[in-house]
Each structure stands twice: as C-alpha cells, then as structure tokens.
Design a protein that fits this description.
Number of helices: 5
Strand content: under 5%
Protein name: Transcriptional regulator WhiB
Number of strands: 0
Number of domains: 2
Pfam family, one: Whib
Largest sheet: none
Distance between the termini: 53 Å
Structural class: mainly alpha
Main location: cytoplasm
Cofactor: [4Fe-4S] cluster
Family: Belongs to the WhiB family.
C-alpha cells in the first residue's frame, strides 16, 4: 500500500526540479545543504520524512533529512514497530538459591569463595562424567 501523497501539493519544493534534492558529484555536500534549506521552511516536512521512511526511499533529501539521518530514523521506526507487535514478556521467575549437593551449589561455592562441601563436590563430578558420556550435564528424567 502506498501512503497518501496529498501533502505534496503543499510542499515547499512543489514545482522545483527534483534533481536539487539528489546530490551528485563533487558538490554533493552543497546540494544537500541547499535542499535542507528549502525543507527548513516546508509546512509538510514531517509527512515528507514519514513518506520516505514508509516507502523505503534510499536516495535524496526528504523532510530536510540526509540519507544517513533517514536510515537512522528508519531503524528507530522499524524497531519500535517490531517492539509493539511482540507479545508482552511474562514476569521473570524468581530463582531459588543454589542448594548444596547440586552442581549449581558447587558453582555457588566457587563464586562465594567458600569451602566446597562433599555433596557439592560429588554432584559436580557426576555432572562432569555425564557431560563426557552424553553431552549434557542434565540427569535423565
């Protein structure tokens, strides 16, 4: 679907040569700045920029924005659209503290720099052996 273009008749650039908004050659920077000056006084500047973003326009000055500025705004626009379309996240489950006699208990001892108890040491050894045999540290259900 192509967005509505009724705003074009009110644009400050209506009737101008479109090439003035597409920079080329050695004077590209000067052309961009000249185009931006025209856009600065335009009453439909926002509609122009939105149109360029929605249609994926990749060249020229639109709504007073350079190609780089349009790309940045397009990224923000698409990331916002993706965010609003995704389902809200479920609240995070509270993790229970690591219990002794488990591999996570062994890792907690290491993090806290406390002495590793015998049940945790055994659980870690069992998990290492399971990893070598099956490729996972999880015990079979």
């Amino acid at each position: 679907m192509i967005p509505n273009t009724d705003w074009l008749q009110h644009a400050a650039c209506a009737g101008m040569d479109p090439r003035a908004f597409f920079s080329t050659g050695n004077h590209a920077r000067a052309q961009v700045n000249a185009a931006r000056r025209v856009c600065a006084a335009c009453p439909v500047r926002e509609q122009c920029a939105n149109w360029a973003i929605q249609t994926g326009e990749r060249n020229g000055v639109w709504g007073g924005m350079s190609q780089q500025e349009l790309r940045q705004r397009r990224r923000r626009f698409t990331s916002r659209a993706k965010t609003s379309m995704t389902a809200p996240k479920a609240p995070a489950k509270k993790k229970e503290p690591a219990k002794c006699g488990t591999r996570s208990g062994y890792q907690k001892h290491l993090r806290d720099k406390t002495e590793i108890c015998a049940p945790c040491r055994q659980a870690n050894t069992d998990a290492d052996n399971r990893l070598r045999r099956t490729g996972t540290t999880r015990a079979a259900a």
